[in-house]
Each structure stands twice: as C-alpha cells, then as structure tokens.
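Batch manifest line 361
LIGAND: adenosine-5'-diphosphate
JOB: complex structure
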Amino acid sequence: MSQLEEEIWRRLGQVMDPELHRPLTELGMVEAVRLHRQEVTVTVKLTIAGCPLKARIESDVKAALAGLEGVSAVVVDVTVMTADERQKLTQELRPLRHSSVTRDGSRVRVLIVGSGKGGVGKSTVAVNLAVALSQLGRTVGLLDADIYGFSVPRMIGVDRRPVVLSDDMILPVEAHGIQVISMGMLVDEGTPVMWRGPMLTKLLEQFMGDVMWGELDYLVVDSPPGTGDVAITLAQRLHQGQVVLVTTPQAAAAKVAVRVGEMAKKVGQRLLGVVENMSYLRCESCGAESRLFAGDGGKELAEALGVPLLGRIPVQAEISAGGDSGQPVAWARPDSEAAQVFAQVARAVEAAAWEVAAAAP
Ligand SMILES: Nc1ncnc2c1ncn2[C@@H]1O[C@H](COP(=O)(O)OP(=O)(O)O)[C@@H](O)[C@H]1O
Ligand SMILES: [Mg+2]
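JOB STATUS: finished
ARTIFACT:
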C-alpha cells in the first residue's frame, strides 16, 4: 500500500457512522478505496437501502479526505450490504446492544420527566433539558415513553424512521446532537395508537432493550401524564430512574404531582427535583416579571416532597414556537432567556443527579 493509500485509510478510520457511533472502517462499511491518477473512489456499503444518512456519510467521507496532497477529487460510490453482510454486522454489534440503559452498574443517569396532569409542559421540558445536557458536553438519549400522546418527534424536528438492523436492533435517530426514539417515528402522524397494556409494555421494553443507545451519560424519558403501566414498566426496567417532576404554579397541578411523586417512591424511583413551568411572563418593554397563575406550586411541591426546586421556566412564545417548528429553543436560540433557564436546570439536574447517586447505598 502506498503512503497515500495508508493515509486515506487512516482518515477514513476517523469517519463515524452517525448512528452506530463507530468508524465506518470498523463496521466493514468501506468496501474499497481506488486511486486513479489524482482521483480517489471510496466504495461505501450502507446497512440498508435508502439509508436516511446516505448524504451525511457521503459528505463526511469527502470532508475527511479534503485537502489531501496528491488527491484532486473524491468520489463516493454507495452500495448496500447483502443480507448476509448485514447479518454478520448485526452479530458483531449484538454484545453492544445491552447498553448502558438497562445494564447494572452503568454510569447512565435515567431522568424520567413526569407530571400529574397533561399540558404542563413535560415534553417541552424533556426535549430542552436533553438538549441543554448535551450542550454541557454529555451524551444524551431521549426516549419518548408517551406512546399514545407522543410529541417528541415534532418538537425535536425528526420526521424519519429509525434504521432497524434486525427486529431486536433498532438505531435511535440523531437530532440536535441527541439520540431519539419515539412511537411517533414508527407510525404516521395522525394514526391513533390504540394499544392495550401488554403491547404497550412490550414496545417500551423494546425501546429500552433493543435500541442501541450505546454508552450514555443521560437518558431523558418523556413519560405520559399521571401514573400507570408505563411508570411501572419504566421503574422495573430502568436502573436508577430519577424523576424530574414538572408542575405549573397552580396549587391544583402541584397536588396531582404530589401523587406522582409518591407513586415514584413506591416503585423505587428516586425523586430528583421539581421544575416549575409557566412560572412567569417577562414584559418585553420593561423587563418586569408578571405571574399568570396564582400560587407557588413548584416551591410548595418541592418542599412537600423534600427535594430541590431545579428551576422556574417563563412562558415565552419562543418556547412554544421552538416546539412547533422542531427547533428547540435551547438549541436554536441559545442567547434567549428560555435557553439560559434550561441551561440552569441542566446544571441543577446534574448536581442533584450526582448527589442522589452518591447518597445511594
Ligand atoms: N414555558 C412555556 N412557554 C410557552 N409555551 C409553553 C411552555 N411550556 C409548554 N408550552 C406549550 O404548551 C403546550 C403543552 O406543552 P407540552 O410540553 O406538550 O406539555 P405536556 O407534555 O405536559 O403535555 C405546547 O404547545 C407547548 O409548546
Ligand atoms: Mg407530552
């Protein structure tokens, strides 16, 4: 092999598959490198036909070889693995599947975002918290456990299906730096999901056991409102689940949230803290805070449960607009007050998650 070819392979060894998080060369995805005059042709084998990441992989390969002396053009030739090749890769990856999420002794912190009532901003908090934690340099997964009322795909701007390598190996979809899985990626929007308890439990089990999460620092779980099957399944399957309770300042919302808090304790989840959402409105011209709801629900709830108040989030049009457009405010508008508040919540969560873990037996 010439020195130039060696250098080409070395550089290709740094191109990662965006969803398997391993170098293409290691995954057997680089079939050949041909050098003709000054033109390099790299043949890349994708895991499945119509791979949604085709364009991304192509451009990453080109970027890796850009500016290489003695190379004036890079052509990426894309083919697809045969069923046998895919099976072989699946076998090789299988040991990695029992990932950080369900394995004992892993470093992952599972953050279950819950609330008593719907509509208090649980999904909004889950998505922006996940983004804010990833901005602290952490590796973050986001599991949408709200099977019937999923909203994560829209909020984070994902409209494609996950790559399924085999029926027990699903790759989470990457968006805004985090890895996401949701029922909403598996059914068409507008299709009502009407599954019974056991099927729902099975799907959740799959999301935890068959999704290749890799080594995560945090798995943020957006859960459906209230208590129930989902909460119990999550508690049984996820080690060290820690609950972040979302409430509004209204006393009623806080009261329901207390029940969720007690339920969490019952099933063995730790309560990490409380996030109060829709706490205040900031006047655009004078900067004063005004309250929309009577009550001090977040603080009262935190006190009642003996956990910290992790943050107070204002009502802002850019927060809901970010959710509607798939551009979470924590990502798209990092200088906004909302993004700063989510960053603060992420830091508070990080401090509390560490404290709780350290205090655990
Ligand atoms: N702090 C906020 N400021 C403005 N709009 C918000 C805020 N929090 C939530 N919303 C909006 O309220 C609605 C309900 O929020 P969502 O996160 O879906 O609640 P839940 O998951 O608890 O049902 C969404 O349209 C969302 O954009
Ligand atoms: Mg929701």
